[in-house]
Model the fold of this input.
Amino acid sequence: MKNKPRAVVLLSGGIDSTTTLAIAKSEGFDVYVLSFHYGQRHRVELEAARQIAQYFWVTKHLIIDIDLRLFGGSALTDNIEVPKNRKAAEMSEAIPVTYVPARNTVFLSLALAWAEILGSEDIFIGVNALDYSGYPDCRPEYIAAFERLANLATKAGVEGKQKLKIHTPLIQMTKTQIIKKGLDLGADYSLTHSCYDPSEAGEACGECDSCLLRLKGFREAGIPDPARYRAKRLVSS
Done:
């Protein structure tokens, strides 16, 4: 039997990256998963990532420590208040304070390094250009630029041994479409975590941008959100 091609999948523990992992598995890749402890306030997501990786029986799951708190500048890594209860128009009118400077560039660079070692030509990342809350490193033009860079920056690329592809299967999908796709592929969203400002017990706030987008997606899909929220009423609000 022919060996499966290897792929590196970035996994945060949220809906998008979990669905992306499910897609990579469904496409027949031998999956190597990469997560990051980067100083984020919502570190409960890493436990979610561990459980999701186990659920999908990935070949290997690495969690890398990078302390982006040293730079600060984001509500996810610094003492900055997480925005709550914003309308959709507010979320998209400017880059939010939950944006972590250069995060996807850092993550993709490390995924690129691992892919070269593994002899993999495929990296999967769950970026989205529709429900992406204004993040500049989730846009199609950014991904295309990084892919060009990746093929110039590696020994394997220069020698013509690999032509790296950055897969973004969710980039033009709504949150509702993403949820339905993941469910079709057997994803267990009860394992996922999306909140930017969870409680000590890991309960989602239900009010940050990420929670609101998640709730909207499940509501429009007509499916109850299995996440644990501080206030039960928020699940169906």
